[in-house]
Design a protein that fits this description.
The complex is a heterodimer of chains A (about 170) and B (about 180). Chain A is α+β, with helices and mostly antiparallel strands. Chain B has about 180 residues and is of the alpha+beta class. In chain B, helix 1 packs antiparallel against helix 2. Classes of the chains: A alpha+beta (about 170), B alpha+beta (about 180). Chains A and B meet through strand 4 and helix 4 of A and strand 6 and strand 9 of B.
Chain lengths: ~170, ~180
Amino acid sequence: MPTLPVLRYPHQTLRARSLEVDNVNDEIRRIITDMIDTMYASPGCVGVAAPQVGYPLRIFVIDVSRKIGPKKNHGLLALVNPVVAYSEGEKITREGCLSIPDFLGNVKRARKLIVMGINPEGKEVEILSQGLEAIAFQHEIDHLNGVLFIHRISSLTGDLVRRKSTPKDTKD
Amino acid sequence: MKRYFAITAIGKDRPGIVSGVSKALYDLGTNIEDSSMTILGGEFAMILIVSTREEVDASDFESHLKELTDKIGLFIAIKELDESDVHSKKPSGIPYIISVIGTDKPGIVYRVSNLLASKGINITDLNTKVIPGETAPVYTMIIEVDIPQYLDVTILEEEFSTLEKEMAIDIGIKEIEVLEL
């Protein structure tokens, strides 16, 4: 299982808008598989966006069940060209990011959303998501637009904290 | 080899404190690694972690900052740090937020923090504010703590609940949801 090196801020690719994928072919599916392997190889990690691993393409993978178990989420998901069709509510979560390894930030995002996109089989899908999974969707979609969580915090004292420990491996 | 110092400074708030201190540090060739500054009760307080060349020591800071401390009455303390302390990432427990609210009275901070200390719980952040209440001022305190993995949080909740009754305050505790992405 090839895992990919993760780019760190301030790498240019992390700040650029990623490109739409024209055709979900075997090459794209191979990238998705590598992204999934990279996510599972990182302790506690529940999402990876393609630009984080050097592909400026609108693709992400998430698996929030790694953190919260099978309830209230869809488990492993890979989405191409995702678009938020609807969002509501507010929720503050402390987010960490593989590309900014030393800090965590409190970010306010929508609590519930509908995301449309293309799955790895090339089919259009519509996903209703809430809670932590919805937060993960928004964090990853931000990556595709060159936005990182540090751009969304308003106070360094309250909202950005230095990591006090390395993330636990929630896999086992 | 770089050396590391913690500098704390406090003085009556006015424009120019940050620029004055940071100019003195810049002139000394130090790099500000990290800092926290805030204003409380009209006093401006700063903590700075700086790195310097090996030949710089605490007395150099004092001489470079003297003009400024004399001019604007800043109290300054300088402490040398080990590099390992500056960069250490302590392995630790699970982050929780504890909120304490109640009619202002002496002993709230002491009783709550004493309970935490007796359990070996480390406070990583603490902020307080007194807000106007209907009859008397209300004291609010938000504490961030690291609770060791082995500690049973329900026992802590029970002891908090005893303290709540004794002091007529409300204490809430909740785990901080951390999402690794």
